[in-house]
Amino acid sequence: MKISVLIYEDNHLLRESVGNMIRSNDTLNLSGAYENVLNVEAQVKSFKPQFILMDIDMPGMSGIEAVRKIRMFNATVPIVMLTVFDDNTHVFEALRAGASGYLLKKHISTKLFDSINEVLDGGAPMSPSIARMVLASMQQKTPVENPYQLTVREKEILTSLSKGNSYKLIASAFEISIDTVRTHIKKIYEKLHVHSQTEAVSKAINEKLV
Fold first, then answer.
1. Could you tell me which of 74, 55, 52 has the C-alpha nearest to residue 63?
2. Best CA proximity match to 6, nearest among 57, 63, 91
C-alpha cells in the first residue's frame, strides 16, 4: 500500500515540483498540497497522512507553529521541514516543536526520497550543515547529572538518536540487533516519560542529557 503524503509549501512552483516528484514515486501517494497551514488540523485529521512535508516560512502561520498544532493531537506522524534557512534558531525551534527531520530546499531534488525513507525507518534526516550545527551546539553544553538513571548504553543510543541515526545504523554501530535497539529505546522512552523519538531527542537536547 502506498504511503500517503501531505505537502505544505507557499511557493507555487516548488509545491508543484515536489508534488510531481511524489506522484512519480510508485511507493508514495500525494493526498494534498497546500500553500498555507491555516486549516492544517482539519486536513491532517481528514487525510490521516503517513508523512508530512512542511515549509517553515508561510503566510498566516509558520510551519513550526503548524507542527506544534499537529503534535497536540498526533504525536507520531513524521514531519520533515522544508526550508531555505540554515541556522541554529530555526533548527532548534523545529526540533522542539516536534519535527522529525529537516531538509534544505536546495537539496530536495537529490535527497527528498532518501529523507522520506530514512524517517520512516526510524531516523531523523537533516542536511549535513544542520547536523553539524546541532552536534556542535550539543557538544558546547555541559552534561548534567543522570536524573533519569539511564545506563551507559542507553545514553549512547540516545546520543546516536539525537544525531539523526536510524535504528539500522545504531544497530550496526554498536554491533547489536535492531530488536535490541528497539528494546533499549523502549526503556529510554519509559525513563524519560516520552512516547516518541522526537520527544526523546527534544528532551535530551533541552535538558542537556547528551
1. 55
2. 63
Confidence category of residue 196, pLDDT binned at 50, 70, 90: confident
Rounded to whole angstroms, the Cα distance separating 140 from 116 reads 30
From residue 208, give the alpha-carbon distance in Å to each of 51, 145, 147, 164, 187. 29, 9, 11, 16, 19
Copy the grid coordinates of residue 81: 521541514
The domain over range 141-206 is classified in CATH as 1.25.40.10? no
In the chain, what's the furthest Cα-to-Cα distance?
Answer: 50
Residue 148 pLDDT level (bands cut at 50, 70, 90): confident
Q: Where does CATH 3.40.50.2300 sit in the chain?
A: 3-129
Instruction: Round to whole Å and give the CA distance between 185 and 179.
Output: 10
Single out the residue of 75, 38, 194 nearest to residue 207, CA to CA: 194
Contact 9, 63 (CB under 8 A): no
CATH number of 3-129: 3.40.50.2300
The Cα-based distances of 187 to 124, 182, 196 in angstroms read 19, 9, 12
First-to-final CA distance of the chain: 38
